[in-house]
Design goal:
The chain is mainly β. It has 6 helices and 33 strands. The termini are far apart. Strands 21, 22, 24, 26, 27, 28, 30 and 33 form an 8-stranded mixed β-sheet that branches. It has a 7-stranded mixed β-sheet with strand order 11-10-9-13-18-15-16, with no helix packed on it. The chain has a 5-stranded mixed β-sheet with strand order 12-20-19-14-17, with no helix packed on it. Helix content is 10%, strand content 37%.
Length: 548
């Protein structure tokens, strides 16, 4: 027997022996409380709890989530950052890979972790339930950690509105064309609660800590730093990176980093950590944007907090996707096809609010897109069967795609790709700069670009991404800012190798039954018809591009 094959076989057998099924029973239900410390409101939790306890598994385990929906609307779950290779139907986005779990019904998701380890999260992907609390960390522990450390700490950074998502969207949908927002700014949550009243982070002198930091925010950027301490980045979105020393983290919605922090050698002082929550989509207002929170890194209970100013002549160093390099040293992928994805904002005579990425703005159709891809035979490779509203792009198996995302507006975005991570290879200035904004520098990755599944695209910036279409399925690529962006069409659908998808996967019968219970067809083109007949499909929204 070939020695190399024997080694791989033995490793596989050992992994199989130690891997297990981690089974959790989740009752998704409404809960009431004031997580921000002031606004008592209805939110969404699990088994009566909010925040939802983090999920921990070992690499190779299968996470089995038995979900019962006690809400009065459909729900679904998305394992953010997980490939779901061979199980596209477990990916979660409603009307893309499923119809959602109807009220009062149950469904089981199975998430295989053999191919990944790192820092992920699970969140609702129907009716933006994540914004109202259906979100929690999902940690896949490696059997061999990337670096040595003494202890691991989990940090979640969230934004929290005083209103439920759809109540707030009624206000946003009706804002005036001058961009005025209602007086409803998100508060910041640190590890699930008001960031000014959180428990201290406890350090012991000389110990090395791995901090897994997750932005589960829906709208706001999160800055996190510890006074008097450096951080060394070792992971971005589940991908190991070469060590990079930084002063702090600046995470957009959906992004994650692991950092190593070495504790100081004295217990004479405690130190402050700072969490800043801010957003380009909200107006500047004293005390509201940005919101600044402070907590304690505790070396000794009762020790004074050492006063260290953030101000210095030296510019703080933040992680940048062009300076982060992948630890596995995968070189730049050779490009087979370039797809331009310009961001466009639309307005009508009353408001500004709709967005598109590439060809048009995304709208859900009558049939979930995966079901169209699975039922249309050879026509599944023709983008027309998915209708213009899905903003679909058909990808050939194993071709290397380069996305060029260009943003000529004052709004920042993060874009998340389901089913993949991607190389972030280049970024630079784009569009006509507005007064008060600093021009973006041109940056290019080094020889081993970092891969991640969620990327920042800042105001007046373009970004280039590369990935190999090696995961047959129907995958969403969308802005992860829920209020106003993803909600209003800033997404595309990737139809990847549909001919292989039809041969390799089978949608569980229970998923089709959940569709039928909601009156949703499970076969045919986007309108549920044969061929290219889109009769019955609501017309695509057509608006005038806005450039202010």
């Amino acid at each position: 027997m070939n020695v190399c094959f024997l080694f791989i076989f033995v490793v596989f057998r050992l992994t199989s022996c130690f891997a297990k099924r981690v089974e959790l029973n989740w009752s998704v239900e409404y809960v009431y409380g004031a997580r921000d410390g002031s606004n008592y409101r209805r939110s969404i939790g699990v088994n009566g709890a909010t925040p939802i306890p983090a999920v921990h598994v070992m690499q190779g385990d299968t996470l089995v989530l038995n979900v019962h929906n006690k809400l009065d609307v459909a729900t679904s779950l998305h394992p953010h950052g997980i490939y779901n290779n061979g199980t596209n139907y477990f990916d979660g986005p409603d009307m893309v890979t499923e119809c959602g779990i109807p009220p009062g019904e149950s469904f089981t998701y199975e998430i295989n972790t053999a191919a990944q380890s790192g820092t992920f999260w699970i969140h609702g992907h129907t009716r933006h339930a994540d914004v109202d609390g259906l979100r929690t960390p999902f940690i896949i522990h490696s059997n061999k950690p990337p670096v040595d450390y003494d202890e691991e700490l989990l940090i979640t950074l969230e934004d929290w509105f005083s209103q439920e998502f759809y109540a707030r969207m009624e206000y946003i949908d009706n804002r005036k064309i001058d961009g005025t927002f209602p007086p409803n700014y998100a508060g910041g949550l640190f590890n699930g609660y008001n960031a000014n009243h959180t428990a201290p982070i406890k350090f012991r002198p000389g110990k090395r800590y791995r901090l897994r930091v997750i932005s589960m925010a829906a709208n706001n950027w999160s800055v996190f730093r510890i006074s008097g301490h450096k951080m060394t980045v070792i992971e971005a979105d589940g991908v190991r990176s070469m060590p990079l020393e930084v002063d702090g983290l600046n995470l957009g919605p959906g992004q994650r980093n692991s950092v190593i922090v070495t504790a100081l050698n004295s217990t004479d002082f405690n130190y402050a950590f700072k969490f800043i929550s801010t957003s380009s989509t909200l107006n500047n207002e004293s005390g509201e944007k940005p919101k600044i929170y402070q907590g304690v890194v505790e070396y000794r209970e009762g020790a004074p907090i050492k006063d260290i100013s953030d101000q210095s002549d030296k510019k703080p160093v933040w992680p940048d996707d062009m300076t982060l390099q992948a630890a596995d040293k995968q070189p730049w992928l050779p490009v087979d096809r370039i797809i331009d994805l310009p961001i466009t904002r639309y307005s009508d005579s009353f408001r500004v609010g709709f967005w598109s990425l590439g060809k048009t703005l995304y709208q859900p159709t009558i049939v979930p897109t995966l079901y169209t891809a699975m039922s249309m035979g050879k026509l599944a490779s023709n983008e027309s069967v998915y209708a213009p509203q899905t903003n679909a792009y058909v990808l050939r198996h194993l071709e290397v795609i380069e996305f060029v995302i260009s943003n000529p507006f004052i709004n920042d975005h993060t874009f998340h790709m389901h089913g993949h991570d991607f190389q972030v290879t280049e970024a630079g200035p784009y569009g006509e700069l507005v007064h008060g904004y600093t021009e973006i520098d041109y940056r290019k990755s080094g020889p081993w670009p970092i891969r991640r599944d969620t990327v920042q695209v800042r105001a007046f910036e373009y970004v280039r991404l590369r990935f190999r279409a090696d995961n047959p399925g129907v995958w969403r690529f969308h802005c992860h800012i829920a209020p106003g962006h993803d909600y209003n069409g800033l997404a595309v659908i990737l139809i990847e190798a549909p001919e292989l998808l039809q041969k390799q996967q089978r949608i569980p019968d229970q998923m089709k039954e959940m569709c039928k219970k909601q009156g949703i067809p499970t076969a045919g083109n986007a309108a549920g018809n044969p061929g290219f007949d889109l009769t019955g499909l609501p017309p695509a929204i057509t608006l005038t591009p806005s450039y202010h």
